[in-house]
Each structure stands twice: as structure tokens, then as C-alpha cells.
Amino acid sequence: MTATREEFEARLRQIGADRYHDKHPFHHLLHGGGCTPDQVRAWVINRYYYQHSIPMKDAAFMSRVEDPEMRRIWRSRIEDHDGTAENEGGIKRWLKLAEAVGLDPDYVQSCEGVLPATKFAVDAYVRFVRDKTLLEAVAASLTELFAPAIHANRIEGLLKNYDFANDVSLSYFRKRLTEAPKDVAFGLKWVLDHAETQEKQDAAAKALIFKTDVLWSQLDALHSAYVEPARVPPGAWQPGTGMLLAKAS
């Protein structure tokens, strides 16, 4: 039986309550000040791979959208990350964080030190959005429903516990406090409008679960590689092996 609009929205929100990555042990470690400088750097390096892939994901989505109005609305997501003449963009803000924690921004941009599992998870998300239905692609983006809370908690935790944290280094997260609600307001309405059968509601819910799995698996990879007992796979960034700014070496 097809759920009402209100019931379906509640189902989507419950997925976040149950599965969002704010519950992962690595986030508790990070926000609570328990990460070493190199564990923070590993997080910055690997999260960059996700950040830099989001505009490619959105471009892949837009290439399949025939409605000019929807493309115009969705295009702002790419501009939020890549930047415009007036807005430096989330990618550049993330590189400010990289520099603040002592990493060479050029090295971070190269993505050479990214964990294999991070690449697999993020690349799978890009393929998902490229290949699945538009409904599933939009539904997968609805993790943004839960993002403002984690950004606010992260800002508070990082400012409290780490010397690198300031308005410049945390500018990415502060900006997302206003960008994410704008995006999710459109995305949620679009999913609720278009998931008019139980089959479509189930597909949308599964897509959102998939995205929570993508985010969770990235933190699993970090925790496995860089938290004791650390097991850094070949090719991934090795703490203490360079790629740091002179002041951090």
C-alpha cells in the first residue's frame, strides 16, 4: 500500500536517524578531540575525494535531465562546490582546511593518498547517480536532510578541541549550513512529488540507504587504516612520510 506523503517523509527521515554517519565511532573521535593530527589529516585527504567528486556527480545527473528549469536549479549545486566569480566554492574552502592541518594542498588535490575503499565508495556513488533513475538519484542526495546538524556539531567540536580550527579553516562547514537546507528543500519536495507509488517509494528509500552506506563506508575505511591498530593499505597516505607543509613537518 502506498504511504501518504507524510508517512513517506517520515520513513526517509527515519533512515537518517538509524543510519547516518554521525553515529560512526570515527566521527565521535574527531568531534570529541580524540584524533591525532595525522588522523585529522587522513580524514581531510580522504574527504577531499568525496568533495571533488560531488560536482562530477551532479554534472552526470544534469546530463540526463531534460527539464531546463530543473537543470537551472540543480546547477547551483555545482557552483556551490566549484565556485563562481562571487563565490570561491566548497572545494577551495576544503583546501584551506587542508592547509590549516598542515597538508600540502597540491598533494591533497592530486588524490594520490586516498584510501582504495574511499575511491570505491565515492566512485560507486557517482555511477549510481549516472545510471539509476532520476528519482533514485535525487533521493540519494537527501542525506543533506541530516547534514546541518553534523556540520554544527563538527564546528563546535573542532573549535573546542583543535588549534587549527578557526573561521577560515572551518569556512566550508559554515557555508554548508546555509547551502544544504536550500538544496534539500528542493530535493525532498521533488522526491515526495514523484514517488507516487509504493514501488517508487521503496526505490527512493533504498537509494537513500545506499547513500548512507557510501558515507559510512568512508569512515570505516579511515577507522581501519588510521586508528589503532592502524592498517594503512599500500599507496594510501602514510603518516610521517612527507606531503606536509614545512611548518607541519
A few lines on this structure:
By secondary structure, the chain is mainly α.
Search tags:
0% strand, 249 residues, single chain, Heme Oxygenase, Chain A, 69% helix, mainly alpha
Write up this protein.
There is one protein chain. By secondary structure, the chain is mostly helical. It has eleven helices and no strands. It has one domain (26-230): Heme oxygenase-like (Heme Oxygenase, Chain A, Up-down Bundle). It has helices spanning 5-19, 25-31, 37-62, 68-82, 90-100, 105-110, 116-131, 134-140, 147-161, 171-194, 198-226. The N and C termini lie far apart (60 Å). The mean pLDDT is 94.
Give the topology:
Layout lengths: L4 H15 L5 H7 L5 H26 L5 H15 L7 H11 L4 H6 L5 H16 L2 H7 L6 H15 L9 H24 L3 H29 L23
What's the CATH class, please? Mainly Alpha
Which structural class do you get from the secondary structure elements?
mainly alpha
**What's the N-to-C terminus distance?**
60 Å
Number of domains: 1
Mean pLDDT: 94
